[in-house]
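Batch job 17 of 40 flagged for manual review because the log was empty.
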Amino acid sequence: MIIGIYHIFITALTIPGIYYIASTVTRRLNTDRIKFLGGIASVMPQFSVLFFYGCYILAILPGSPFL
């Protein structure tokens, strides 16, 4: 039960962050085409680290030793 609540809490915090970062990238680079987004880590290093961290949190299982 507690792990389910933990999972809902973490998901509720990270999904809006992922959408915010994706919309910031789209607005700053004026494109949403993947072929034009190459090398984005060199242009926006802080956002790429935050995006990776957010995706990592969403990918792991609650209670996983990788947390």
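Reviewer: the log was empty due to a logging misconfiguration, but the result itself is present. The chain has a mean pLDDT of 77. Unflagging and moving on to job 18.
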